[in-house]
Each structure stands twice: as C-alpha cells, then as structure tokens.
C-alpha cells in the first residue's frame, strides 16, 4: 500500500480555509467535515491524511517529520526558525507583526525599553537590528494588558484589524513584518516524496494565481 | 544469542568502509581548550558549550565537534591526511533543554585536495548512507554556483546571506523579494537555480545550459566532473540540490547532505571547508562529513522479542552449586540465561525451564 501524505493543519478558521483550498486542489477528505471528536482524517483515494494541530505546533509536527507538510503562520516560522522548507506563501491569514503601545507613546532611548510579547525572538531580532536595548517580558496571552497596567512600555504582537488595540487605548506604532500562512515541508520527507509534494505545491500555486 | 544490535552493526560497517579506503582512525580526548571553540563559534552554529576549569585554571570544554580538533592537530605540511572518527560530542539541545551526549562518526580528508579525493569522500558518504538504508538520497551542491552569481551581481554581504537563506528554504516568494535589488535577469537566474533539483543525470545538463557567470560555471563544471568520477565507483542515489547551503565563512565549494527514508532529519552532512582551514592559519584544504548516528536512534531501534532466551527457575531448597552448573550448561549453547527464584517477577523469555531441565509454565 502506498503510504499517505501526512498534512498538519492549524486548528480554527484559518485551517478550515486552508482545507477548502486543498480540497479544491484535489486533496479532498470528506471525513474531515463530519462533526466528531476525531483528530485524524484520511482518504485512501486521494492518499492524504490530515490532522488538526494547535497552530503554533504545526511547525513542530513538520520539523520532526510526524507530518510531511503543513501550514503555519510566518510569525511562528520567524519565532521558532524550524528547519523546514517554506514552499509557498498561501496569501491567507494575513496580518502584521507590530510594535504597539499607547497611541501617544514616545520612546526615550535613554532608558531600557520594556517589551511584552509572545514572540521574544522576533522582538529581540527587531530591536537588536536597531541596537536598542530592551527588556523582554515573555507572555502567553492577553498581551494588550501589559502596557495598560504598566507591566511594559510596548508590546510586540500580531495585529489583524487593530480593534482590540483601539478599544484599549493602544495603537500600532511600527510594523515589523507582514504575516501570512505558509506551506512548509519537512526537509527529509521532501527527499522521498518530492513528486507528490511538488505536484501539490504547483496545483495550489496555480489555483492562487487563477484567483480560485 | 546476544547479537549486536543494528546501531552496533552499522558502526562496524562504517569502520570497515572507511578503513578499506585507507582512512585511519582518529582518536581525540573528550576535552579541548575552550579557546578553540570561542574563536570558531559560528562554525559550530551554536554558542552554547559545556565548559569547566582544569586543575591549572585553564578554561576547558567538552568537545562539541571533532572537525575543529582534527584541523588543529593537523600539521601544515602539504601532505594529504585521511582520517575517520567515532566519538561522543556534547551539544546543547536545539530547544534549550540542556546538553546531550551524541555519537558522531565521520571522516576528514585534509591537505592538498584534488578531484579524486573529493569524489572519494562523496562516494564514502553515499556508501555510508547505503549502509544505513537502501532508500537514501545524497543531495549534492556547490556553493560556488550561488556565490558566483552573487559576486557577479555585486551583492553585498547582507543581501547575499538573504539569498542563500531563501534558497536554503526553497522559499521562492522570499527570494523574489530579495531579488528586487538585482537586474531582472539575475533574479530569473537565481530563481531557476533555486528550483533545480533531481538526479544528477537530469539536473547537470540543465544547470550547465544556464547563462552562468564564469565563476559559477566553473563550480557547475566541477560538480559535473565530480559526478563523472563518482560513476566510476558505482551507481549512487545522488541528487543535485542547490538549496543545500552553509556558512560561506567556513565552507566553500562542494557541500552535501544525506537523508534516509525513516529518519526525519538529515543524517549526514559534509562539504569542502578550506575557509575554516585557512582561518585557523593553515594552507591547503579539507573535505569531510559527519554521520549523526544519534539521529538514527529511533529508526534503528529494534525491540527485542524477549529479554532472555531461557529463564531458569529454581527454588529456595535447590543447591546453589546445582543452579550454577545448570546455568553453565545452558549458556554453553550460546543462549542467554537468567536464573531466578520461583515467584520473582518474571522478565520476558523464549522458554522457561525448571531445575530438572523441563519446560515449565507460569
């Protein structure tokens, strides 16, 4: 029996959109749409096995080869630098990695800038390039709270619409990098399934160019 | 029988392979002066090194790498040295969960390197992979192709690094962004190079047909000649893939990575590193590779069917000398034997016998 192509998808809205794209490209797996608590879905006909993973874990599944390919946000790829191939920009799940803070914030270079973030490596790299000394406060959620209660001066976080920021009297101050979902592949698995992975990449690329 | 497991058999096979081609085993101490690594941090790709103070106060390190020691201890005398090693090295886990001891086997060829020497090392890399699994791929690349194009386009260091990183990820969209700094034809050429991939027979003609600048063309021709010599050794699963890149401060020329089906990361990595040799104040060149046996641990693991061949069960009343005699008798045939008191929790076994030699049930 031919082995399945293992695909890790990020749980949530983005994952569903990505699946719709894969389905349209000929990698359907009807079981996925059933309402149940299963974690793994396969379709012998199309030779694919999908599983849902926490978005920040997709790159781990792919890097360690539990999934041959997967879809992960550029934010995760920048933060964790997994050793994977980044084959395609899927042009969805678009947002921006930003420095945000009180709308009237003025940086005083004389003192260390306190930065709260879920992305310490991205923040470190960004400020190191400006030789700005910072104190990183690694958070796991509700980052917006940090500058409001005085835990930090600014935050480095993903900004989609900016609504949450605005409602809390904050604003994006600088854009660090635009973010979107990327198709990634395990480097070793790519060597042994390169035909399948290349075909899939090409089909999706073509679909995107044709505007679906 | 207590047969060697797959990892041990593989180690033996690799040793024989390297010695057959005249490589001598190289042994190093577990420790090196820290200074050696401090001066070559980025070669290791990791700043974290396990250090301690020696009795005379010198800062020492548990060696994270063998190549640097080989180069350091090689005399600069225009003689070609061929060595292989099987050593434990100490590296920090990539995710920062402490240091690990990992086994590394590899070989180095140091001195005046010619085409034959290069082809021999590549052949030994391919044979090493074949010894692990018949389903292997050796990705071959030449840094000179990309650096040749980048030098010709007068790319600055920052841009060149960005191009190498994008090609290394097969990341076309990032490559296109970086290439905006270049004339359109340079961008198109880099994109074609990034997309190249496949067996050497297929890829080499298309690579040589590209409008490469002189230095890049020389590199492509070197790949071609090398594959020619390699064919005289035999037929190998060699792919050309220019996405194999590495730090150009250390590496130059030929560079390669090996993969086997079943292991989820590369298991072999090597290349030509004249720049490292020169940085360490020596002339001449070097080429070598390392096989990461630790990366194969999961793949090579064979769950033993049982702990012992024979479980000999005796009772408290039995004479210990009689038990000793029975054990001696049973092991004579090559079986593994465990003797234990009746009623003790059992290990897994092929057969279970009593003192009278008859098989007994639980």
Summary keywords:
heterodimer; A: alpha/beta; 6-stranded mixed β-sheet; 5-stranded mixed β-sheet; 8 helices; 31% helix; B: alpha/beta
Report a brief summary of the structure.
Chain A is 31% helix and 32% strand.
Describe it.
- The complex is a heterodimer of chains A (212) and B (362).
- Chain A is of the alpha/beta class and 212 residues long.
- In chain A, 31% of the residues lie in helices and 32% in strands.
- In chain A, the strands form two sheets. A six-stranded mixed sheet of chain A has the order 2-3-1-4-11-5.
- The longest helix of chain A has 16 residues, at 194-209.
- The radius of gyration of chain A is 20 Å and the shape is elongated.
- With 362 residues, chain B is an alpha/beta fold.
- Chain B is 40% helix and 24% strand.
- Chain B has 14 helices and 15 strands.
- Chain B has a nine-stranded mixed sheet with strand order 1-5-6-12-11-10-7-9-8. Chain B has a three-stranded antiparallel sheet with strand order 2-4-3.
- The radius of gyration of chain B is 26 Å and the shape is elongated.
- The relative contact order of chain B is 0.13.
- Chain A binds chain B through residues 64-66, 83-89, 186-189, 191-192, 194, and chain B through 135, 137, 139, 169-174, 197, 239, 243, 259, 261, 263-266.
Structural class of chain B: alpha/beta
**Largest pleated sheet of chain B:** 9 strands, mixed
Can you tell me the residue ranges of chain A where pLDDT is under 50 for at least 5 consecutive residues?
none
**Average pLDDT across residues of chain B?**
89
Helix-strand pattern of chain A: EHEEHEHEEEHEHEHEEHH
Characterize the quaternary organization of these chains.
Answer: heterodimer
| Major β-sheet annotation of chain A | 6 strands, mixed
Compute the number of strand runs of chain B: 15
Q: What is the spatial order of strands in the main beta sheet of chain A?
A: 2-3-1-4-11-5
Largest interface: A-B, 17 and 18 residues
Distance between the termini of chain A: 33 Å
Strand order of the largest sheet of chain B: 1-5-6-12-11-10-7-9-8
Task: Please compute the radius of gyration of chain A using only Cα atoms.
Answer: 20 Å
Shape of chain A: elongated
Counted by DSSP, the helix tally of chain A is 8
End-to-end distance of chain B: 23 Å
Number of helices of chain B: 14
Beta strands of chain A, count: 11
Determine the mean pLDDT of chain A: 92
Elements of chain B, N to C (H/E): HEEHHEEHEEHEHHHHEHHEEEHEHEHEE
């Amino acid at each position: 029996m031919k082995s399945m192509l293992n695909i890790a998808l990020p749980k949530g809205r983005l994952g569903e959109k990505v699946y719709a794209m894969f389905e349209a490209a000929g990698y359907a797996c009807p079981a996925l749409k059933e309402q149940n608590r299963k974690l793994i879905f396969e379709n012998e006909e199309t030779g694919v096995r999908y599983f849902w993973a926490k978005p920040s874990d997709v790159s781990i599944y792919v890097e360690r080869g539990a999934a041959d390919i997967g879809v992960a946000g550029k934010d995760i790829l920048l933060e964790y630098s997994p050793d994977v191939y980044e084959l395609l920009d899927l042009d969805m799940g678009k947002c921006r990695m930003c420095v945000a803070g009180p709308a009237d914030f003025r940086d005083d270079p004389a003192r260390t800038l306190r930065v709260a973030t879920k992305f310490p490596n991205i923040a470190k790299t960004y400020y190191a390039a400006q030789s700005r000394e910072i104190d990183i406060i690694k958070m796991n959620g509700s980052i917006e709270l940090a500058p409001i209660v005085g835990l930090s001066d600014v935050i480095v976080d993903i900004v989609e619409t900016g609504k949450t920021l605005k409602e809390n009297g904050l604003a994006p101050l600088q854009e660090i990098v635009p973010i979107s979902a990327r198709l990634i592949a395990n480097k070793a698995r790519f060597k042994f399934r390169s035909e399948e992975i290349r075909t899939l990449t090409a089909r999706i690329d073509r679909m995107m160019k044709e505007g679906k | 029988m207590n047969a060697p497991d797959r990892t041990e058999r593989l180690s033996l096979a690799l040793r024989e392979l390297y010695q057959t081609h005249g490589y001598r085993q190289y042994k190093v101490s577990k420790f090196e002066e820290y200074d050696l690594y401090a001066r070559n941090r980025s070669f290791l790709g990791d700043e974290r090194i396990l250090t301690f103070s020696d009795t005379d106060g010198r800062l020492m390190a548990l060696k994270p790498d063998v190549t640097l020691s080989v180069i350091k201890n090689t005399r600069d005398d225009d003689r070609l040295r061929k060595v292989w090693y099987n050593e434990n090295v100490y590296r920090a886990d990539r995710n920062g969960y402490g240091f690990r001891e990992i086994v590394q086997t590899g070989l180095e060829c140091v001195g005046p390197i010619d085409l034959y020497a290069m082809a021999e090392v590549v052949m030994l890399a391919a044979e090493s992979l074949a010894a692990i699994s018949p389903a292997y791929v050796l990705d071959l690349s030449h840094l000179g192709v990309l650096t040749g194009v980048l030098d010709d386009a007068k790319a600055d260091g920052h841009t060149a690094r960005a191009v190498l990183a994008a090609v290394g990820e097969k990341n076309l969209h990032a490559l296109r962004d970086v290439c905006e700094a270049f004339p359109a034809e340079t961008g198109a050429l880099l994109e074609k190079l990034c997309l190249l991939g496949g067996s050497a027979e297929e890829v080499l003609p298309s690579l040589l047909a590209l409008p490469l600048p002189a230095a890049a063309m020389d590199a492509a021709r070197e790949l071609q000649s090398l594959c020619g010599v390699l064919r005289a050794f035999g037929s190998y699963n060699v792919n050309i893939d220019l996405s194999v890149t590495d730090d150009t401060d250390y590496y130059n020329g030929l560079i390669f990575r090996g993969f086997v089906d079943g292991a989820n990361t590369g298991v072999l990595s090597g290349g030509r590193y004249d720049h490292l040799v020169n940085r360490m104040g020596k002339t001449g060149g070097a080429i070598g590779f390392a096989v990461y046996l630790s990366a194969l641990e999961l793949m090579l693991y064979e769950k033993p069917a049982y702990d012992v061949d024979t479980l000999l069960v005796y009772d408290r009343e039995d004479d210990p000398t009689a038990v000793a005699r029975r054990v001696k008798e049973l092991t004579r045939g090559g079986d593994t034997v465990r003797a234990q008191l009746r009623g003790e929790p059992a290990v897994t076994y092929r057969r279970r016998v009593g003192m009278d030699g008859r098989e007994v049930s639980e």
